[in-house]
Amino acid sequence: MAKFKVILSDPQTGTSKVVELEEARAAPFIGRKIGETMDGAAVDMPSTKVKIMGGSDKDGVPMRPDVHGGVRRKVVLSGGVGFNPTKGGERRRKAVRGNVITDEIVQLNMKIVEQPNKPKEVKAEAFKPQAPAANPA
Question: Looking at the domain assignment, is residue 120 inside a domain?
Answer without folding.
Answer: no
